[in-house]
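Encoded backbone
================
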Amino acid sequence: MTHSDASDSATDQPMAGAGIVHIGIGAFHRAHQAVYTHDAMAAEAGDWHIIGVSLRSTEIVDALNAQGCAFSVIERHPDGPKARKITSMTHALAAARDVAPVIATLANPAIRIVTITVTEKAYGIDRSGKVQRNHPAIKHDLENPAAPSGLVGILVAGLKRRKDAGPRPFTIVSCDNLPANGHLLRAGVIDFAQQIDPDLGQWIAEHVSFPSTMVDRITPAATAQTFADAKRLTGHDDPAAIETEPFSQWVIEDDFPDGRPAWEKAGAILVRDVEPYELMKLRMLNGSHSLIAYVGQLGGYRYVRDAMANDMFAKLVARHMENAAASMTPLPGIDFADYGAELVDRFRNPEIAHETRQIAMDGTEKLPQRIFAPALQMMNAPKQLGTFALCFAAWLAVMRTRINGADASEAAQTLNDPRADDIVAALGDDQEAAAIYDRLAHLQGWMPEGLQESAVWREAVIARLSLLLSEGADHAIAQELAP
């Protein structure tokens, strides 16, 4: 059997014991949903093993399959790393190599749940719930629905096979940092399906459940140290090892018509409404992460832990969490101040090497829900608006800094953003803060109209951008914290 056959043959891999397909088997899934499912099956047996799917990478598929899809999770505790062996995944498929086994697996009635972690930009769904027809994967899959390459196209192809064969559909669970991720994915999948088969779109609308979720676990990219620690702690090489923090949280809307693992016995929180938890995490954790990422890069901080070791920077982050908390209604059973203090401790963990540049990627996908939405709610509180304005100003400065001196194609690659070409074209050669703001704040379809039309917001951002460009990050932080 060839190496490719060994990795991708769905027919050679028995389905016995499998109940979940997970799309996007990167580090976060292996540190999060795979761990919860491993622990849930240890607590309460069931046929819930995971068949993993990678949309782009073949390397991780081959690495996992070569070791029976078991892998090491290295938890970075302040007193040193600890290793766990996770065995909830039984097989992995590379969609880029051959999508047919992926669709065949989705069509199998043993699969009752499909979970997803593919990052925001892979969805190709706009904020209104419509698919973006100019998104490369959406465009390809609308033209080639029987041989899709992207997330939504693959989901719809699998659902079509289930509808045509007659068995019940699978439940689809987004675990990405999207606002109301279940509702958004449902709208996008239905919109896509209706464009190729209106009856299929109607069937999905009537029969398929899309629970929303909130996920939280800081998971840096694996490094040589990750693999060295995995070998030292386990006694063997593990090219699929990942590292993560001790903390983990999963809040899930409990809407699974065809059953689910006992995730609550693994520590997950099953609720009727995820949105309040989602807002808390997006605005306090993810928003603070974006602030650290952009201001941190301007200040020369490679890792989050390095920025947080600076007392002034840590105070800025704590201030931002207070401002983010003020944009939300109280959540029963949750003390926002305690949650913020816990986040500060997590960010300070000296054992977690989370790169600011990794967090900073895909800003045009992340800033609307992390920064713009709460900023819009704080327009009548100029002092509390400040850290939101600073975060956006820092993003603008990072974009300007990365583009300086580069030609258009090199600059677009450096930005690492799905709208990199738009950013480069809009920014041009402008160096003044007001011009930079006016050009990038008006990129189509990303900043809320209320912010675009606000002179208060514009002035707040421009003032901070001018400071960042002229005096640097440390001075801008000091000014933000001044009474």
Notes: Residues 10 and 101 are 5 Å apart (CA to CA). The longest strand covers residues 71-77. Residues 3-271 form a domain with the Rossmann fold fold (CATH 3.40.50.720). DSSP finds 23 helices and eleven strands in the chain.
